[in-house]
Amino acid sequence: MSDRAIVEVYGLVKRYGDRRVLDGVDLRLEQGEALGLLGRNGAGKTTLLRILMGLRRPDEGRVRVFQEDPRDLGRAARQRIGYLSESQHVFPWMRVEQLIRFVAGLHTTWDAAYAQDLVRKLDLPLRARVRTLSLGESRRLGLLLAVAHRPDLLVLDEPAGGLDAVVRREFLDTVIELLQQAGKSVLFSSHILSDVERVASRIAILERGRLLFDGPLEQLQESVRGVDLELDPEVEALALPNALRVERRGGGAWSAVLERCDDRAVAALRQRFPGAAIEVRELSLEEIFIAYTGERHE
Predict the structure, then answer these.
(1) pLDDT band at 298 (very low <50, low <70, confident <90, very high)
(2) What's the predicted TM-score (pTM) here?
(3) Are 213 and 229 found together in one domain?
(4) Cα–Cα distance between 158 and 163 in angstroms, integer?
(5) 163-218, pLDDT tens digit by residue?
(6) Could you tell me the residue range of the domain that residue 77 belongs to?
(7) Rounded to whole angstroms, how far apart are CA atoms 293 and 289?
(8) Is residue 298 part of a domain?
(9) Quick one: which of 156, 142, 145 has its CA closest to 185?
(10) Measured at the alpha carbon of residue 41, what is the angle toward residues 290 and 209, in degrees to the nearest 5?
(11) Residue 82 to residues 161, 206, 232, 267: CA-CA distances in angstroms?
(12) For position 164, what pLDDT does the model report?
């Protein structure tokens, strides 16, 4: 096991009835990394994060967080983790300021000055009861509780849900500020791909419980390309190597998304289709995500 490994997952399987929600997942998170976990609803993202937090039991495989089984994490290891779940439930009868004081007492590394700064930045109503908070206010409070003890590992499940653009920027700035501290790591899932591009240095794409891609964001954006081809209209079917998607646009026009689309791959296409018009273009993270999973995100 690597000394720099914060999270290690090998052969992870989780079943609900006859359905494999996670199907042989291998994943590592190194110290200082920010990993964005992408996937359609039901792909297994939340289940994976809950297993890492010790809230679900895997059916097969090996999971380690800080080199310990997450179900048996000691107090010292738990102190090093911040977690914001997709549906956070915390003492609804408390006032916001009471809940902050309560959670502060659970952490030896709680930074009171940092917490106060976050109250201001995130515009939290200290005197309000937790049960009266809007969805956005609840998410902002959850973020404060997850980061004010400056955790070594921050786990966020759809953290920006219900936040407007201005508050979301403050939210992301807070996460980025944590990452800038030496050795801090972030693992988060999000449907907002522009947020992922802003924070993540690495991307993992889950589809039907399997990892389709796991690697640096820069590598993903450099190796996956869109290719437009103008071929003989009589071509009825087109099979291309390393194709994620191939679509006919009408007549002899075809559009494809290819993995590992380097200069050699493009040269091979030109040799295969001499005289054909072939245009290679860069893709956004959203276009790449759609090619892998078939889902469009607004």
Answers:
(1) very low
(2) 0.88
(3) no
(4) 11
(5) 778 878 888 888 888 888 878 999 999 888 888 888 899 999 999 999 999 999 99
(6) 5-219
(7) 6
(8) no
(9) 156
(10) 85
(11) 18, 23, 57, 48
(12) 78
